[in-house]
Amino acid sequence: MQRLVFLLAIPALMAGCSERGDRSHLAETSWRFERIDGERPASTDAHLTFDDGRIGVNVGCNRLGGPWRVDADNRLYAGPLAQTEMACPDPAWNQGNAVNALLVATPRMNVEGDRMILQSSGHTAELVRIENAKEGRQGD
């Protein structure tokens, strides 16, 4: 009987796993920040990567990472996020904090071709897809 219950539970467990990470076309993609709250990023290496159910973010100084998923309303759920906490000069410090606040606010996501806009009530980020996903992970 226990074996039967276990076998019946497998499809439910697998369905729960499919909601994590790649419920969309974002898996295994990398994106370069073009604008953070209307300003160019302080670092030319500012990027966001969706990789194997985890999101990775580097805005120039500190890094963020954790699980992610997208719901049916195109909201990005990221977290809980781990973050490095190095003292960074402005504007990298402020931009890193803005991106962190944006991601934990479950932003609306609009992806059209190679462009993505993440927007919450307080912050906005505009990103462009990086052709080679490995390119976005340099230094991670």
* Oligomeric grouping of the chains: single chain
Radius of gyration: 17 Å
Overall structural class, as computed from helix and strand content, comes to alpha+beta
Global morphology: globular
Can you summarize the main beta sheet? 9 strands, antiparallel
Query: How many angstroms separate the termini?
Result: 48 Å
How would you characterize the overall build of this protein?
By secondary structure, this protein is of the alpha+beta class. The chain has helices spanning 2-18, 92-104, and strands at residues 29-36, 47-51, 54-58, 63-70, 76-78, 82-83, 108-112, 115-119, 124-130. Strand 2 (47-51) and strand 3 (54-58) form a beta hairpin.
Summary, kept brief:
The chain has two helices and nine strands; from the N terminus they run αββββββαβββ. The chain is an alpha+beta fold.
Defining key terms:
single chain, 140 residues, alpha+beta, nine-stranded antiparallel β-sheet, 9 strands, globular, disordered N terminus, disordered C terminus
SSE inventory with pairings:
Blueprint: H1 2-18, E1 29-36, E2 47-51, E3 54-58, E4 63-70, E5 76-78, E6 82-83, H2 92-104, E7 108-112, E8 115-119, E9 124-130
Antiparallel strand pairs: 1-2, 1-9, 2-3, 3-4, 4-5, 4-6, 7-8, 8-9
